From TrEMBL:
SUPFAM superfamilies: ATPase domain of HSP90 chaperone/DNA topoisomerase II/histidine kinase (SSF55874), Homodimeric domain of signal transducing histidine kinase (SSF47384), PYP-like sensor domain (PAS domain) (SSF55785). PROSITE patterns: HIS_KIN. The keyword Acetylation does not apply. The lineage of its organism: Bacteria, Pseudomonadati, Campylobacterota, Epsilonproteobacteria, Campylobacterales. It comes from Arcobacter roscoffensis. Its EC number is 2.7.13.3. Residues 482-705 form the Histidine kinase domain. Keywords: Kinase, Membrane, Phosphoprotein, Transferase, Transmembrane, Transmembrane helix. The keyword Metal-binding does not apply. PANTHER family: SENSOR HISTIDINE KINASE (PTHR43065), TWO-COMPONENT SENSOR PPRA (PTHR43065:SF42). It catalyses: ATP + protein L-histidine = ADP + protein N-phospho-L-histidine. This is histidine kinase. It is an enzyme of class 2 (transferase). The chain crosses the membrane at residues 12-35, 263-286. One of its GO terms (molecular function) is kinase activity.
Length: 705
C-alpha cells in the first residue's frame, strides 16, 4: 500500500527540488557556454598570433636565403661583400668558408674574439650542406646559433645566424604568469627558442622536450588546440603548433591552463552568487504565495471535513482562486446531492431490508458460532416460525454432520463456494431439506463473516425423480416392443415345431429321431428367449455404483434391442471405432439406456422424414484425454430454434402422442450431472457408402484420466 504524504510538504519539496535542479542546470549550461566561449576565444587568439609569428620567422629565413642567392649571382669582391653583409645584417654574426676538404678556408666576424677559437672549430661542429642546421652550441659562441649553408665557387659558405631577433620577437608574447608563450623546435625535437630557460638549462631540457611532441605535435594536426604537459615549467598548458616548411621547425604557442581555470572560477563564483540570490528571492516569493494558497486549502479541508461528518447544510465558502472556486462549486453540488442521497439511502435501506425478507432465497450472515442476520425466507425454508428464533443460535444447528467440515474449511482457509452446489440442511424438526447453496466471505461491521445463500430444491428433486421414472417407463415400453420383435420369430418356430409333431403323432408317422430333433430345436429356441430376458434384466438393473466400463461393449449391448427394428425398417447401421476397447468411468446401466434412447430417436427421425437413404452412423475415438461418441442419422435434422430447447424437460419434436419429451432431458442430465461429461446436438452433413447425407448429430464427450 502506498505511503500517505502531506500535500503541503510535497508541493514545497517539489518546488525546492525543481528550483534547485533548474538553477543547477542553468549554472552548468552557463559555465559550459563560458568555458566553450573561452576555449574558442583562446583557440582563435592563439591561431592568429601563431600565424603572425610564423610569417615573421619565414620573413627572417627568406632574408638569409635571399642574401645567399645574391652572393651566388654576384660573386665578385666577395671579401668586401661578406664584410658588408656582416655590417648591415644583425642576423648574421659570422661567415665561415670551407674548402672542398671541409677545412676552414676563411672566417669573417663582426668581432675578432671569434677568431681566437678558429683552431678549436672541428669539422664535425658544422657539417651542413645547402640547408638550415639544427641548433648549434659552438665553443667560440656563448649563445646557441643556427647555420645556413650554401655552395659558392666550389666552396661551402656557412652563415652563423643569431637567434636574438627571433627571441626578441617571441619575448613580446607573454602569458599572465609572465612566462613566454612560444617554443621553437628544430628537426631533432630540440629547443631552438625557449625564453623561459637560459642557455645552460636549454641544453639540459633538450632530451626531455619530446613530451611536447607526444602530447601535442605528433597527436594533432596544425592549429588544433590541445591540452599537454609542460615539462619545463611542470604545468599543464593549452596550446597548438605549426610547421616552418623550409626548415621543418615546429613553432608552438602555449598558455597555462590555470589562466582558463582562473577565468572559469571567477565566472562560476559570479554566476553562483547571482543565481543563489535569484533562487533565494524566488523561493521566498513562492513560499509567500504558497502560504496564501494553503491557507485557502486548509479552510477548504475544514469544510470538506464537515461534509464527511454529515454536515451537509453548511454552504461552502468561495476563495479568490478560480480553479478552487470551480472545485468548490462542484463539491457544493455534491453536498446537495449527498444530502438528497442520504435521505434516499435511508428509504432504500428500509426497502432493501424488506426486499431481503421477501425474497425466495434464504440468506444467513454468520460466523463460526452463531447466526447474526437471517431473512424470512431462510426461516421459512428451515421450518422456523420467524427469523428471530434462528438469530443468535449456532449455525451448526442446521448443518448435517457430513457438511460441518466443509463449513469449517471455508472459515479457516477463506474458501468461497462461488458456484451453487447441492447440499442438505436440517430443519427445525431435524428433517432434511435439499437446497442449492453458495457461501462466501464478507466484511460486516469490521468483522470477518460469511454469507450463505440457499434455495429450496426439494420439489425439484421430486420432479426429477418423477421424470426419471417416466423415462424408465418409456424405456420399458419401447423395450417391450423390441422384445416382442425378438420373441416373435422364436415363438413362431416353437409353435410350428410343436404343431407339426402333434400332427405327425396323430397320423402315427412321428419317429423317435424326428421327436428328438424337434424337442432339441424347441429347447434351443427357449434358451434364446431366456437369454433375451437375462439381457433385459441386466439392462434395467438399478446399479448406482460407478465403474470403469468399455464403451464399445456397452454400445453392442444396447444395439441388441434396437437392431430388429432397424432391420424391419431397412435402416442400415454402420459403426466406426478408432480402438477395439475404450474405457470410461461412469454408470453402465444409465449409459446403455441413453444410447438406446438416442438410437430410437434416430430411427424415428429417419422414418418421419421419409428419406430414401436410411442410415445411422456410430463413431468412437480418443483425442488426448477425451473420448468422443458421435451418432449421425440421415433424418434431415431439426430446426435451429428446436436445437436450443432440445434438452428441456417435456419438450419434443415428435407428435405428442408419440414423444414424451424426457429422453434427451434425461440423457443430458445423466451425462452432465452423473458422469461429468458433455453432450451436444447439431445438424450435420456426413458421407456413407459414397452417399452424401444430412441429419442430426449427437456428440457425447467424456474426460478420462
Amino acid at each position: 500500500m502506498f505511503k500517505v504524504k502531506s500535500l503541503k510538504k510535497s508541493i514545497i519539496s517539489v518546488v525546492i527540488i525543481f528550483t534547485l535542479f533548474f538553477t543547477s542546470v542553468i549554472l552548468a549550461i552557463t559555465i559550459f557556454s563560458f568555458f566553450n566561449l573561452k576555449h574558442q576565444s583562446m583557440q582563435h587568439s592563439q591561431k592568429e598570433i601563431l600565424i603572425h609569428v610564423k610569417e615573421q620567422i619565414n620573413s627572417f629565413i627568406n632574408k638569409i636565403e635571399n642574401l645567399s642567392l645574391y652572393l651566388v649571382q654576384n660573386n665578385t669582391n666577395l671579401q668586401i661583400t661578406f664584410q658588408n653583409i656582416l655590417n648591415t645584417n644583425d642576423e648574421i654574426s659570422t661567415i665561415i668558408i670551407f674548402d672542398n676538404y671541409n677545412n676552414v678556408k676563411q672566417i669573417y666576424s663582426k668581432t675578432d674574439i671569434y677568431l681566437n677559437f678558429l683552431d678549436d672549430l672541428s669539422k664535425n661542429e658544422i657539417n651542413i650542406k645547402n640547408t638550415w642546421s639544427d641548433l648549434l652550441f659552438l665553443n667560440f659562441k656563448k649563445t646557441p646559433s643556427i647555420a645556413y649553408s650554401f655552395t659558392l665557387d666550389k666552396n661551402r659558405v656557412v652563415f652563423l645566424v643569431s637567434l636574438k631577433k627571433i627571441q626578441e620577437l617571441t619575448k613580446t608574447f607573454k602569458n599572465s604568469d609572465n612566462t613566454s608563450r612560444f617554443r621553437l623546435f628544430d628537426k631533432n625535437k630540440r629547443f631552438i627558442i625557449n625564453n623561459d630557460l637560459d642557455t645552460q638549462n636549454l641544453e639540459k631540457f633538450d632530451s626531455k622536450s619530446k613530451t611536447y611532441f607526444t602530447n601535442l605535435i605528433e597527436k594533432n594536426d596544425e592549429f588544433v588546440l590541445e591540452k599537454f604537459e609542460n615539462i619545463c615549467l611542470g604545468s599543464v598548458d593549452y596550446g597548438m603548433y605549426t610547421t616552418i616548411e623550409k626548415t621543418s621547425w615546429k613553432l608552438l604557442i602555449r598558455e597555462n591552463i590555470n589562466v582558463l581555470e582562473s577565468y572559469i572560477l571567477k565566472v562560476v563564483f559570479t554566476l553562483s552568487v547571482i543565481i543563489f540570490v535569484f533562487t533565494l528571492l524566488m523561493l521566498l516569493f513562492i513560499n509567500k504565495y504558497l502560504k496564501k494558497v494553503f491557507f485557502r486549502l486548509n479552510k477548504f479541508k475544514l469544510q470538506f471535513k464537515n461534509i464527511s461528518n454529515g454536515e451537509y447544510q453548511n454552504k461552502l465558502q468561495y476563495t479568490d482562486f478560480y480553479e478552487l472556486n470551480s472545485f468548490i462549486k462542484s463539491f457544493d453540488k455534491m453536498r446537495l446531492e449527498l444530502n438528497k442521497r442520504e435521505i434516499s439511502l435511508t428509504k432504500n435501506l428500509d426497502s432493501f431490508k424488506h426486499l431481503v425478507d421477501s425474497t425466495m432465497e434464504g440468506i444467513i450472515i454468520h460466523d463460526k458460532n452463531e447466526c447474526i442476520k437471517v431473512n424470512n425466507a431462510a426461516a421459512n425454508i428451515l421450518g422456523f416460525n420467524n427469523k428471530y428464533e434462528l438469530e443468535g443460535d449456532s449455525i451448526f444447528k442446521i448443518i448435517p454432520n457430513k457438511y460441518k467440515k466443509i463449513l469449517e474449511d471455508c472459515f479457516n482457509n477463506d474458501i468461497d463456494i462461488d458456484e451453487p452446489k447441492e447440499f442438505k440442511l436440517l430443519k427445525k424438526d431435524n428433517t432434511i431439506v435439499y437446497v442449492l447453496a453458495k457461501d462466501q466471505e464478507i466484511n460486516f461491521k469490521d468483522n470477518k463473516l460469511r454469507i450463505s445463500l440457499f434455495l429450496d430444491i426439494t420439489d425439484l428433486k421430486e420432479q426429477n425423480r418423477i421424470i426419471m421414472e417416466q423415462s424408465k417407463l418409456s424405456s420399458i415400453a419401447q423395450m417391450l416392443t423390441n422384445i416382442a420383435h425378438h420373441w416373435r420369430q422364436p415363438l413362431s418356430t416353437i409353435s410350428v415345431l410343436s404343431s407339426g409333431m402333434k400332427l405327425e403323432k396323430e397320423l402315427d408317422v412321428l419317429g423317435d429321431k424326428e421327436l428328438v430333433r424337434g424337442l432339441d430345436k424347441i429347447n434351443k429356441t427357449t434358451k434364446e428367449l431366456s437369454s433375451i430376458i437375462d439381457r433385459c434384466s441386466s439392462y434395467f438393473e438399478l446399479n448406482k455404483r460407478q465403474e470403469n466400463f468399455d464403451l464399445i461393449k456397452s454400445l453392442d449391448a444396447s444395439l441388441v434391442f434396437i437392431e430388429p427394428l432397424l432391420f424391419k425398417y431397412e435402416i442400415k447401421l454402420i459403426q466406426k471405432h478408432q480402438l477395439k476397447e475404450l474405457f470410461v468411468q461412469g454408470y453402465l446401466t444409465e449409459f446403455s439406456q441413453i444410447i438406446f434412447n438416442l438410437l430410437d430417436n434416430a430411427k424415428d427421425a429417419i422414418l418421419n422424414s421419409k428419406v430414401k437413404d436410411k442410415y445411422i452412423l456410430i463413431e468412437t475415438k480418443k483425442v488426448d484425454k477425451k473420448v468422443f461418441i458421435k451418432i449421425n442419422d440421415s433424418g434431415l435434422g431439426i430446426k435451429k430454434t428446436e436445437i436450443e430447447k432440445i434438452f428441456e424437460p417435456y419438450y419434443t419434436t415428435k407428435i405428442k402422442e408419440v414423444g414424451a419429451g424426457i429422453g434427451l432431458y434425461m440423457a443430458h442430465y445423466i451425462i452432465t450431472k452423473h458422469m461429468k461429461g458433455n453432450i451436444k446436438i447439431k445438424n450435420n452433413a456426413f458421407e456413407v457408402d459414397d452417399k452424401k447425407l444430412y441429419g442430426l448429430e449427437v456428440i457425447i464427450e467424456f474426460k478420462i484420466t
